[in-house]
Amino acid sequence: MKEVPVGVSARHIHLSSEHIGILFGAGYVLNIMKPLSQPGQFAAEETVAVVGPKGKFDKVRILGPARNSSQLEISRTDAFGLGVNPPVRESGNIAGTPGIKVIGPAGEVELKEGVIVAARHIHFHTSDAEKWSIADKQKLKVRLNGERPLIFEDVIARISDQFALDMHIDTDEANAAGVKTGDIAVIVDVL
């Protein structure tokens, strides 16, 4: 059986070094609150507010380290609350996506693009992918065995020797299946 731990991803933002400087002050360095499942990734102590056409969320957690481009990842439910209509995309694929205003303690940034609903995916270490004969970008069918078992299709395989095995879904998907971080998903098929 191909078992994978589940990681539920609440709304969060990735910021570029330039935007960290604008929002928190020149030369500011994010403080690590806790490490995440992927090596070198962390939840920062710092948060920002995001403002859309219809609503605002305060205390949106920043995930580090800094990225080349800033990106807000939200659930479809969050999108309704903000009044934006982001596409479902893989992280980093932000071309043509909606923008959002980001407010920090030292300033604000108007992102021209960068709001997405993250596509569900599984991070595979290269050795795990080889063991299970799974290729990068392959689509998978995965069963979540929560209080409301559910099978997700089109789960994207992302493979790197820098990754640790973990399935990432958003809060809407987790709530639909009744699962939480640390639960176990099972890969049932390769599409």
Number of helices: 4
Q: What is the number of strand segments? A: 15
Q: How is the main sheet built?
A: 9 strands, mixed
Strand content: over 45%
Shape: globular
| N-to-C order of helices and strands | EEHEEEEHEEEEEHEEEHE
Tell me the span between the first and last alpha carbons: 17 Å
Number of domains: 2
* Class derived from helix and strand content: mainly beta
* Whole-angstrom Rg: 17 Å
| Average pLDDT, all residues | 97
Helix content: 10-25%
Low-pLDDT parts are none
Short overview:
The protein is mainly beta.
Give the helix/strand layout:
Blueprint: E1 2-9, E2 12-16, H1 17-24, E3 32-35, E4 42-51, E5 56-67, E6 71-73, H2 76-82, E7 88-89, E8 100-103, E9 108-111, E10 115-118, E11 121-125, H3 126-131, E12 139-144, E13 150-160, E14 166-170, H4 171-177, E15 184-190
Parallel strand pairs: 1-14, 2-5, 6-10, 7-10, 11-13
Antiparallel strand pairs: 1-15, 2-6, 3-4, 4-5, 4-8, 8-9, 11-14, 12-13, 12-15
